[in-house]
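Late entry, written up from scratch paper. The run itself happened at the end of the previous shift, but nothing got recorded in the book at the time, so transcribing now.
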Amino acid sequence: MPTIPHHFTTRINLENELTIGSGIDIIGSGPVGTDERGPIISFPGDSHGIVFTGVGDPAYTGTGGSVQNLKLRARTHMSGDALTITAAGKDSRSGEMLLQRLLIYGDGHGDGVRGTADRGIVIDGSMLRQPGAAGIRRVTMHDIRIADTRRESILLHNAVHCSMTSVQLDTGVGVLPVLRIVDGQNIIGTNLIINGQVILEGTANDIMLSGRFDEVIVKSTVRNCVITGPVRALYVEPGATGAFYGIAKIIEDRSQTGFTRFANKLTP
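Output as recorded:
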Protein backbone atom coordinates (compact mmCIF):
# COMPACT_ATOMS: atom_id res chain seq x y z
CA MET A 1 0.00 0.00 0.00
CA PRO A 2 1.48 3.41 -0.90
CA THR A 3 2.13 5.74 2.00
CA ILE A 4 -0.39 8.59 2.25
CA PRO A 5 1.11 11.45 4.27
CA HIS A 6 -0.93 12.68 7.22
CA HIS A 7 -2.95 15.76 6.21
CA PHE A 8 -1.38 15.82 2.73
CA THR A 9 -1.75 19.01 0.69
CA THR A 10 -0.89 18.10 -2.92
CA ARG A 11 -1.64 15.54 -5.63
CA ILE A 12 -1.00 11.80 -5.23
CA ASN A 13 -1.25 9.61 -8.35
CA LEU A 14 -2.09 6.01 -7.50
CA GLU A 15 -0.66 3.39 -9.84
CA ASN A 16 -3.18 0.77 -8.72
CA GLU A 17 -5.92 0.26 -6.15
CA LEU A 18 -5.26 1.61 -2.65
CA THR A 19 -6.42 -1.32 -0.47
CA ILE A 20 -6.96 -0.69 3.24
CA GLY A 21 -7.76 -3.35 5.84
CA SER A 22 -7.61 -1.84 9.31
CA GLY A 23 -9.60 1.32 9.90
CA ILE A 24 -7.35 4.32 9.28
CA ASP A 25 -7.90 7.98 8.40
CA ILE A 26 -7.06 9.47 5.01
CA ILE A 27 -7.27 13.22 5.48
CA GLY A 28 -6.27 16.02 3.13
CA SER A 29 -5.58 19.62 4.01
CA GLY A 30 -6.44 22.59 1.82
CA PRO A 31 -9.13 23.67 -0.66
CA VAL A 32 -11.47 21.09 -2.15
CA GLY A 33 -12.65 22.79 -5.33
CA THR A 34 -12.63 22.15 -9.06
CA ASP A 35 -9.08 23.41 -9.62
CA GLU A 36 -5.63 21.92 -9.16
CA ARG A 37 -4.99 23.20 -5.66
CA GLY A 38 -5.21 21.17 -2.51
CA PRO A 39 -5.28 17.44 -1.76
CA ILE A 40 -5.99 15.18 -4.76
CA ILE A 41 -5.87 11.40 -5.03
CA SER A 42 -6.15 10.23 -8.64
CA PHE A 43 -6.61 6.62 -9.74
CA PRO A 44 -5.85 5.07 -13.13
CA GLY A 45 -7.89 3.19 -15.71
CA ASP A 46 -8.88 -0.43 -15.03
CA SER A 47 -8.31 0.15 -11.31
CA HIS A 48 -10.44 1.18 -8.39
CA GLY A 49 -9.41 4.09 -6.22
CA ILE A 50 -9.65 3.50 -2.44
CA VAL A 51 -11.02 0.19 -1.16
CA PHE A 52 -11.65 -0.47 2.53
CA THR A 53 -11.82 -4.27 2.76
CA GLY A 54 -12.40 -4.60 6.52
CA VAL A 55 -9.78 -7.36 6.68
CA GLY A 56 -7.60 -6.64 9.72
CA ASP A 57 -5.63 -8.54 12.34
CA PRO A 58 -6.99 -9.07 14.91
CA ALA A 59 -10.65 -9.27 13.93
CA TYR A 60 -12.90 -6.19 13.92
CA THR A 61 -10.02 -3.74 13.35
CA GLY A 62 -11.49 -2.84 9.96
CA THR A 63 -13.82 -0.38 11.69
CA GLY A 64 -13.33 3.28 12.52
CA GLY A 65 -11.70 4.66 9.37
CA SER A 66 -12.43 7.84 7.44
CA VAL A 67 -11.79 9.71 4.18
CA GLN A 68 -11.95 13.47 4.62
CA ASN A 69 -11.25 16.76 2.88
CA LEU A 70 -9.92 15.70 -0.52
CA LYS A 71 -10.64 15.25 -4.21
CA LEU A 72 -10.85 11.74 -5.68
CA ARG A 73 -10.32 11.93 -9.44
CA ALA A 74 -10.63 9.29 -12.18
CA ARG A 75 -7.60 9.62 -14.46
CA THR A 76 -9.06 7.94 -17.57
CA HIS A 77 -12.45 7.30 -19.13
CA MET A 78 -12.25 3.66 -17.92
CA SER A 79 -11.28 4.10 -14.26
CA GLY A 80 -12.94 1.88 -11.66
CA ASP A 81 -14.96 2.76 -8.57
CA ALA A 82 -13.66 5.79 -6.70
CA LEU A 83 -14.33 4.69 -3.09
CA THR A 84 -15.51 1.28 -1.84
CA ILE A 85 -16.37 0.14 1.68
CA THR A 86 -16.88 -3.60 1.99
CA ALA A 87 -16.12 -6.76 4.00
CA ALA A 88 -14.83 -10.32 3.86
CA GLY A 89 -17.03 -11.59 6.71
CA LYS A 90 -18.85 -10.58 9.89
CA ASP A 91 -15.60 -10.22 11.86
CA SER A 92 -13.72 -8.69 8.92
CA ARG A 93 -15.84 -5.79 7.79
CA SER A 94 -15.53 -2.06 7.53
CA GLY A 95 -17.87 0.13 9.52
CA GLU A 96 -18.13 3.06 11.93
CA MET A 97 -16.75 5.22 9.11
CA LEU A 98 -16.85 8.90 8.20
CA LEU A 99 -16.78 10.25 4.62
CA GLN A 100 -16.65 14.03 4.70
CA ARG A 101 -15.98 16.99 2.39
CA LEU A 102 -15.21 14.97 -0.72
CA LEU A 103 -15.33 15.94 -4.40
CA ILE A 104 -15.37 12.88 -6.67
CA TYR A 105 -15.09 13.51 -10.41
CA GLY A 106 -12.83 13.09 -13.45
CA ASP A 107 -9.37 14.36 -14.21
CA GLY A 108 -9.17 16.72 -17.16
CA HIS A 109 -10.90 19.79 -18.50
CA GLY A 110 -14.46 21.04 -18.39
CA ASP A 111 -14.85 20.71 -22.18
CA GLY A 112 -15.77 17.01 -21.88
CA VAL A 113 -12.22 15.66 -22.02
CA ARG A 114 -12.30 14.19 -18.55
CA GLY A 115 -11.93 10.83 -16.89
CA THR A 116 -14.92 8.87 -15.58
CA ALA A 117 -15.20 6.52 -12.63
CA ASP A 118 -17.33 3.40 -12.98
CA ARG A 119 -19.12 4.31 -9.73
CA GLY A 120 -18.50 7.01 -7.15
CA ILE A 121 -19.12 5.56 -3.66
CA VAL A 122 -19.95 1.88 -3.14
CA ILE A 123 -20.96 0.45 0.22
CA ASP A 124 -21.19 -3.30 -0.32
CA GLY A 125 -22.43 -5.46 2.54
CA SER A 126 -24.24 -7.87 0.22
CA MET A 127 -22.26 -10.84 1.59
CA LEU A 128 -23.31 -10.14 5.21
CA ARG A 129 -26.76 -11.67 5.75
CA GLN A 130 -26.54 -13.15 9.25
CA PRO A 131 -29.23 -11.73 11.56
CA GLY A 132 -27.66 -9.46 14.14
CA ALA A 133 -24.53 -9.05 12.02
CA ALA A 134 -25.96 -8.01 8.68
CA GLY A 135 -24.55 -5.40 6.36
CA ILE A 136 -21.94 -2.67 6.49
CA ARG A 137 -22.86 -0.65 9.56
CA ARG A 138 -22.61 2.99 10.53
CA VAL A 139 -21.22 4.90 7.57
CA THR A 140 -21.77 8.67 7.78
CA MET A 141 -21.47 10.83 4.66
CA HIS A 142 -21.39 14.64 4.78
CA ASP A 143 -20.67 17.41 2.25
CA ILE A 144 -20.01 15.23 -0.82
CA ARG A 145 -20.41 15.98 -4.52
CA ILE A 146 -20.05 13.30 -7.21
CA ALA A 147 -20.00 13.63 -11.01
CA ASP A 148 -18.48 11.87 -14.04
CA THR A 149 -19.57 8.27 -13.38
CA ARG A 150 -20.51 5.57 -15.87
CA ARG A 151 -22.89 3.75 -13.49
CA GLU A 152 -24.22 4.58 -10.03
CA SER A 153 -22.97 7.72 -8.34
CA ILE A 154 -23.70 6.06 -4.99
CA LEU A 155 -24.59 2.39 -4.47
CA LEU A 156 -25.68 1.27 -1.01
CA HIS A 157 -25.97 -2.54 -1.11
CA ASN A 158 -27.11 -3.83 2.27
CA ALA A 159 -25.94 -0.77 4.18
CA VAL A 160 -27.27 -0.54 7.73
CA HIS A 161 -27.56 2.57 9.95
CA CYS A 162 -26.23 4.78 7.17
CA SER A 163 -26.69 8.57 7.12
CA MET A 164 -26.12 11.16 4.38
CA THR A 165 -26.24 14.96 4.66
CA SER A 166 -25.56 17.62 2.02
CA VAL A 167 -24.83 15.12 -0.76
CA GLN A 168 -25.13 16.26 -4.40
CA LEU A 169 -25.04 14.05 -7.51
CA ASP A 170 -24.37 15.61 -10.93
CA THR A 171 -23.89 14.29 -14.46
CA GLY A 172 -20.66 15.99 -15.55
CA VAL A 173 -19.44 13.96 -18.55
CA GLY A 174 -20.91 10.72 -17.23
CA VAL A 175 -24.37 9.17 -17.39
CA LEU A 176 -27.53 10.14 -15.53
CA PRO A 177 -26.64 10.22 -11.81
CA VAL A 178 -28.14 7.45 -9.69
CA LEU A 179 -28.46 6.91 -5.96
CA ARG A 180 -29.33 3.21 -5.70
CA ILE A 181 -30.28 1.59 -2.39
CA VAL A 182 -30.53 -2.20 -2.47
CA ASP A 183 -31.59 -4.02 0.72
CA GLY A 184 -30.34 -2.59 4.03
CA GLN A 185 -32.19 -0.68 6.71
CA ASN A 186 -32.18 2.53 8.75
CA ILE A 187 -30.86 4.76 5.97
CA ILE A 188 -31.39 8.48 6.49
CA GLY A 189 -30.58 11.23 3.97
CA THR A 190 -31.17 14.99 4.37
CA ASN A 191 -30.34 18.04 2.23
CA LEU A 192 -29.87 15.78 -0.80
CA ILE A 193 -29.62 17.21 -4.33
CA ILE A 194 -30.03 14.34 -6.79
CA ASN A 195 -29.90 15.53 -10.40
CA GLY A 196 -30.96 12.11 -11.58
CA GLN A 197 -32.62 9.00 -10.15
CA VAL A 198 -33.15 7.59 -6.69
CA ILE A 199 -33.86 3.84 -6.97
CA LEU A 200 -34.99 1.87 -3.91
CA GLU A 201 -35.21 -1.90 -4.29
CA GLY A 202 -34.75 -5.30 -2.70
CA THR A 203 -35.58 -5.55 1.01
CA ALA A 204 -34.72 -1.91 1.77
CA ASN A 205 -36.53 -1.03 4.98
CA ASP A 206 -36.94 2.08 7.15
CA ILE A 207 -35.61 4.61 4.64
CA MET A 208 -36.08 8.39 4.97
CA LEU A 209 -34.77 10.72 2.24
CA SER A 210 -35.37 14.47 1.98
CA GLY A 211 -34.13 16.96 -0.60
CA ARG A 212 -34.66 17.65 -4.31
CA PHE A 213 -34.90 14.73 -6.73
CA ASP A 214 -35.38 14.45 -10.48
CA GLU A 215 -36.94 10.99 -10.28
CA VAL A 216 -37.74 8.53 -7.50
CA ILE A 217 -38.45 4.84 -8.21
CA VAL A 218 -39.66 2.64 -5.35
CA LYS A 219 -39.81 -1.09 -6.08
CA SER A 220 -42.55 -3.39 -4.76
CA THR A 221 -40.48 -5.07 -2.01
CA VAL A 222 -39.44 -1.84 -0.26
CA ARG A 223 -40.97 -1.22 3.17
CA ASN A 224 -41.44 1.87 5.37
CA CYS A 225 -39.92 4.42 3.00
CA VAL A 226 -40.50 8.18 3.41
CA ILE A 227 -39.59 10.70 0.69
CA THR A 228 -39.91 14.46 1.24
CA GLY A 229 -39.32 17.37 -1.11
CA PRO A 230 -39.88 18.37 -4.76
CA VAL A 231 -39.75 15.51 -7.26
CA ARG A 232 -40.07 15.65 -11.02
CA ALA A 233 -41.43 12.10 -11.24
CA LEU A 234 -42.46 9.55 -8.62
CA TYR A 235 -42.98 5.89 -9.54
CA VAL A 236 -44.05 3.41 -6.85
CA GLU A 237 -44.71 -0.26 -7.59
CA PRO A 238 -47.67 -2.02 -5.98
CA GLY A 239 -46.66 -3.62 -2.69
CA ALA A 240 -44.26 -0.93 -1.52
CA THR A 241 -45.15 0.84 1.73
CA GLY A 242 -44.32 4.32 2.92
CA ALA A 243 -45.24 7.92 2.15
CA PHE A 244 -44.36 10.90 -0.04
CA TYR A 245 -44.58 14.47 1.25
CA GLY A 246 -43.85 17.10 -1.36
CA ILE A 247 -44.52 18.43 -4.83
CA ALA A 248 -44.32 16.33 -7.99
CA LYS A 249 -44.91 16.93 -11.69
CA ILE A 250 -45.55 13.26 -12.44
CA ILE A 251 -47.05 10.76 -10.02
CA GLU A 252 -47.66 7.35 -11.49
CA ASP A 253 -51.21 6.24 -10.71
CA ARG A 254 -51.00 2.93 -8.87
CA SER A 255 -54.13 2.66 -6.77
CA GLN A 256 -53.10 -0.67 -5.23
CA THR A 257 -49.85 0.57 -3.72
CA GLY A 258 -49.39 0.91 0.04
CA PHE A 259 -47.64 4.24 -0.50
CA THR A 260 -49.45 7.30 0.88
CA ARG A 261 -49.08 10.60 -1.00
CA PHE A 262 -49.53 13.84 0.88
CA ALA A 263 -48.58 15.96 -2.09
CA ASN A 264 -49.43 18.75 -4.49
CA LYS A 265 -49.30 17.42 -8.02
CA LEU A 266 -48.15 19.97 -10.55
CA THR A 267 -49.18 19.95 -14.19
CA PRO A 268 -46.27 18.47 -16.22
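The chain has a mean pLDDT of 91.
(Scratch paper discarded after transcription.)
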